[in-house]
Amino acid sequence: MNATTTTTTPAAPQQHRTPRSRSQGWEIAARVWAAPLGKVAVLLITALVLIACFADLLVPRDPVEQVLREVNQPPSWLGGEGGHLLGTDPLGRDVLSRILVGLRLSLLIGFFTSTATAAIGLTLGLLAGYYERFLGGALMRLADIQFAVPFAAVGIALAAFMGPGVVKLMLVLAFWGWANYARTIVSSVQQTKRMDFVTAARTSGASPLRVMLRHIAPNILGPVIILWSTGVGTLVLVESSLSLLGLGVQPPGFSLGSMLADSQQTLRLAWWAAVFPGVAITLVVIAFSLLGDTLRDAFNPALRANGDHDPELT
Amino acid sequence: MALYLLRRFALIAFVAVGVATLLFALARLSGDPATLMSPADASPEVIEATRERLGLDRPLLVQYVSTLAASFTLDFGQSFMFDVPSAQLVFERLGPSLWIVLPALGITLLLALAIGTAAALRPTRLSGRSLMVVTFIFDGIPYFWLALVLVLVLSINLNLLPATGNAGFASLVIPWIVLSLYGLATLSRLVRGQLLDAFTDGHVITARSKGVSPARVLLAHALPTALPPVLAWLGVQFSLMFSALLILEPLLDYRGLGGLLVESVTNRDFPVVQASVFSLAVLITVMNILMDASVRLIDPRLRAKAAR
After folding, report:
1. Cα–Cα dist A20/A29, whole Å
2. pLDDT tens digits, one per residue of A1-56
3. Residues B41 and B143 in one domain
4. Residue among B152, B244, B276 whose CB faces A267 most closely
5. Is A305 a residue whose pLDDT tops 50?
6. Which of A141, A157, A289 sits opposite B273 (nearest CB)?
7. Is residue B90 part of a domain?
8. Which residues of chain B carry a pLDDT beneath 70?
9. Global confidence as pTM
10. SS3 B272
């Protein structure tokens, strides 16, 4: 039986298609691929991931090698010496090579943190929606409090008190982000819980855990996947911004964000060392937010039909 | 309405207690506060003295209750760095930050209404679609990077603006540009979506059918229907802008609340950290409540409900 056909609440804002079976997952993928912007997003992300994986083979120079003779060289097409396509930074390292390798850490942080946040958010959202009276109330009030505190404030305070570092940073980011997910899915969980097939499962003796995972979770995966996708881009941004304050990735490790941080002081001497990593961050964020947006359309074709309006009316 | 206001104020109190609790927990979880607040190479005796001076040798519950009580009277203790009451420091620095955030919020709203409406009026044509693609590109540009590029172009290359510091109006221009572009994409998309929904609403179709001019349909019928979620989002945007400001202010060497928070964190000036996070949380809650209240004033459906 499929939840699609049993939706009783017309106000239910979410996806009525579950990516439970393989065919539905493929259908979502096909819809994303069919959208022009979806194609752009998928190709861009594939390219970024491939570059990050094979960065070691692609780099024209050693990304950590410091060539003192070639400090602050502009890009070669602006007359820089040494043939550095995107110039060198104040320590004489090749900017292009560092971007290719730095992309790896940035993407890893984005993927892992977003996945961890999604897992925590999904778990707490399921619990809050299932045990709505007590636990749900308490969790949602906690979310209210969290929403009132700007995330950067927490990140800065924690990073400073615990000491900077990537792993700590990822943990903090993952634990703070749950509220966003929980808020989004909790009402769908509550609605799904009241549907006939869930009641049937409960009456036939399924444990709460089984009901939550087997019967409710597949129906709320849509928004979770959408949030996950935009989350990757956002987390790359957040990592960059905290690295900018010196609270994120520490040398000798480097990400796109910490490259930006290293070169902001020498903006007058070598703008290329700050500008090009920023372009790379922009590409990452755009790719994932485009993917998130096309996923939203793919999960909810009705919304899309609504968006492409009858031209007669406008 | 009275009950509504009462409940909203209860929310402020609730958030205040919650944030104070969170801060207390963070301060205790992140290690021994007496050690953290002492100089890095302090001897055990000095640390012990700090512990006594700050009352950290009392039972945890007593500490918690007194911290909570102190938060509500805005008594967070003296700043270690400046030796003035932390709350006073926060209020001095809040002004410069609001000078950035509030105008930027206004600019964002106006631009988003313009872009969103333009895109909603031509949802299928190339011009409408490309507007939306542009918003995606804006969405991806990191605000702190944009700030660096603007400093590079406007201050270093063209010498039009001061690069950093608080130098009156001129030093506000770059933060205004950066922050008003920061949430523009999301807000424009929201305006567009809401307007497209409003165009299919019964009362808008009725207005069109009885021959009301298109401009009037848009301004008097469709926009008021579309506006409430947009206003509600402004509350969220306010919080996001302050988040961005925490990164921007140190970057541009601007002396506002964001700069103060980062400074106090790196200097382990814990009373100031507490005072600024607490005030920010209350400020953001109040802003959200104001937005919520204005939604009620605008939305006739909610107004009717409140009158009953």
Report:
1. 13
2. 344 444 344 444 444 555 555 577 888 888 888 888 888 889 999 999 998 888 88
3. no
4. B152
5. no
6. A157
7. no
8. 1, 29-33, 36-40, 163-167, 299-308
9. 0.80
10. helix
CB proximity list for A194: less than 8 A, separation 6 or greater:
none
A314 at interface of B, judged by CB pairs closer than 8 A: yes
Q: Is the confidence at residue A183, as pLDDT, over 90?
A: no
> What residues does B209 pair with on adjacent strands?
none
Say if residue B65 is in the same domain as residue B107.
no
Q: What average pLDDT score do residues A221-233 get?
A: 87
CA distance A246 to B302: 47
HEC secondary structure over A112-139: HHHHHHHHHHHHHHHHHHHCHHHHHHHH
Decide: B293 and B222 in contact? Cβ < 8 Å: no
For chain A, report the end-to-end CA distance as a whole number of angstroms: 40
Binding-face residues of B in 10-29 toward A, CB within 8 A: 11, 14-15, 18-19, 22, 26-27
Q: Does B144 touch chain A (CB under 8 A)?
A: yes
Distance CA B119, CA B133 (A): 11
Tell me, yes or no, if A37 comes closer than 8 A to chain B by beta carbon: yes
B184: helix, strand or coil: helix
Specify whether B141 is located in the same domain as B241: yes
- Confirm whether B213 is domain-assigned: yes
Q: Chains A, B: CB contacts under 8 A, how many?
A: 160
Q: Which of residues 56-115 of B touch A (CB under 8 A)?
A: none
Mean pLDDT of chain A: 79
Q: Mark which of B13, B39, B72 sits at the end of a domain.
A: B72
Question: Looking at the domain assignment, is residue B67 inside a domain?
Answer: yes
Please report whether residue B114 resides in a domain.
yes
pLDDT tens, residue by residue, A68-91: 777 777 777 777 677 777 778 777
Same domain, B253 and B179: yes
* pLDDT, position A7: 39
Q: Are residues B54 and B192 in the same domain?
A: no
Domain count, chain B: 2
> CATH number for the domain including B184?
1.10.3720.10
Q: Are residues B43 and B181 in the same domain?
A: no
Alpha-carbon distance A41 to nearest alpha carbon in chain B (angstroms): 11
Is any Cβ of chain A less than 8 angstroms from the Cβ of B134? no
> Is B112 found in the same domain as B31?
no
The pLDDT value recorded for residue A21 is: 53
B65 and B194 in a single domain? The answer is: no
Q: How far apart are CA A85 and CA B249, in angstroms?
A: 32
Identify the domain containing residue B10 by its residue range: 2-72
pLDDT of residue A130: 87
Distance between the two ends of chain B, CA-based, in angstroms?
A: 10
State the Cα–Cα distance between residues B18 and A146, nearest whole angstrom: 9
Q: Cα distance from B110 to chain A (closest Cα, Å)?
A: 21
